[in-house]
Amino acid sequence: WLAAFSIREKHLKQSQPGFERDFEIAEHLIKGDCELGNFVLPVPSSSLLIGFLSAADYYVSPTGNDNNPGTLALPWKKIQKAASTAGPGSNVYIRGGVYFEKVEMEKSGTAGNYITFTTYPGEEVILDGTGVGGQAMINIYKKNYIRIIGLHIRNNAGNFAAGILIEFGSRFIEVRNCVIHDIHFNSNPNAPVNSN
């Protein structure tokens, strides 16, 4: 499988395929010093290039707005907005506060280009399911290469309730330093814990 690119390199040798060269191509594309021509890359390399170019840092805050661009100065309001937008290699920094929502991961990262959801340094992020419909606080369905770091997840009661649900072949998912509690796999949060 090949994907055709219209690139003639000024500084790269076409006789040396490989990942190191892919990164060089990405660097030259960003600098804008490649001219039009005929050039061919394998599809995995083009995927790597696309992931490299789409990586970004995004920010979420309880005081934000989902119509914002997701920058530090103009953050989004919902973690879900980030989960629907962030691509391979992106970092989502979540500002401190309580978020009453449940999150469906909509995109995958790639090998070496995880999508990372993490707390903003020095701040506590609480994902609270009180009064929010749905089963899992964070649902990862058929997605890969995602990191979740430092979140405090709480208060989810209902049939098939879950804290972080990873299912249907999702791979390379990392959950680090998260606190998850008061998740009740029952519509009654006061139901006793048993073998079921």
Beta content: 25-35%
In whole angstroms, how far apart are the ends?
49 Å
Q: Structural class, from helix and strand content?
A: alpha/beta
Helix share, percent: 10-25%
Calculate Rg over CA atoms: 21 Å
User: Largest beta sheet: what is the strand line-up?
Assistant: 3-4-7-10-13
- Helix-strand pattern: EHEHEHEEEEEEEEEEE
Low-confidence stretches: 1-53
Q: Mean pLDDT across all residues, rounded?
A: 79
Shape: globular
* Number of helical segments with 4 or more residues: 3
Largest sheet geometry: 5 strands, parallel
Number of strands: 14
Kindly describe this structure.
The chain is an alpha/beta fold and 196 residues long. 16% of the residues lie in helices and 34% in strands. The protein is built from three helices and 14 strands. The chain has helices at residues 19-31, 43-54, 79-85, and strands at residues 2-5, 39-42, 57-60, 91-94, 97-99, 103-104, 115-119, 125-128, 136-141, 144-149, 152-157, 162-167, 171-176, 179-184. The strands form four sheets. It has a five-stranded parallel β-sheet with strand order 3-4-7-10-13, with no helix packed on it. The chain has a four-stranded parallel β-sheet with strand order 5-8-11-14, with no helix packed on it. Helix 3 (79-85) links the parallel strand 3 (57-60) and strand 4 (91-94). Helix 1 crosses helix 2 (43-54). The chain is globular. The termini are far apart. The model is unreliable at 1-53 (pLDDT under 50).
